[in-house]
Design brief:
Layout (H helix, E strand, L loop, with lengths): L5 H7 L12 H4 L10 H9 L3 E6 L6 E4 L6 H5 L1 E9 L6 E8 L7 E11 L2 E5 H7 L6 E6 L10
Parallel strand pairs: 3-6
Antiparallel strand pairs: 1-2, 3-7, 4-5, 4-7, 5-6
């Protein structure tokens, strides 16, 4: 709804400044802090390279996190490669998030999580990924390796 109707989102914001000093102390102390329920999300974002940008979310008062594209580990690891065949688990380099964009399909994009193996001619995936995405040899796929030799955990 916000992509098509920016005015809707803007209408939810206050028109006048909010003076923090006029808010109760219990509210002031929580502004810009991460709630207990969302600490795992903060940990994940920081692991990806996001940092608090000094602003707060207007809806819940929590901190907002941003990341420059060149500092985002998930973006830096993401690759595009030609799918060259299937593997069994014993051959895998690790696990990856795999994405495929369809040209002539009702669903334009799908993603799956599974095993991968980097090969000299491209990339290979475990059968569950191939079946889930319906990819064929020669298809270009995007993939984000999450585990594998020399990779630190993202979160």
């Amino acid at each position: 709804i916000s992509r098509e109707n920016v005015e809707f989102i803007q209408s939810l914001f206050p028109k006048e400044p909010i003076y923090e000093s006029l808010l109760p102390d219990r509210v002031q102390k929580d502004i810009g802090t991460v709630g207990e329920d969302t600490k795992p999300a903060e940990h994940m974002l920081r692991g990806l390279g996001f940092q608090w940008d000094g602003t707060v979310d207007p809806f819940d008062g929590g901190p907002t996190f941003r990341c420059e594209v060149e500092n985002c580990e998930a973006i830096n690891r993401t690759r595009s490669s030609t799918f060259t065949g299937t593997i069994d688990g014993a051959d895998a380099d690790g696990k990856a998030l795999v994405g495929y964009e369809y040209d002539d399909h009702e669903v334009r994009f799908r993603a799956a999580f599974g095993e991968y193996l980097m090969h000299t001619t491209g990339i290979r995936f475990g059968s569950p990924v191939v079946e889930c995405l319906g990819i064929e040899e020669g298809d270009e796929c995007g993939f984000l390796p999450l585990t594998g030799s020399g990779l630190r955990p993202l979160w």
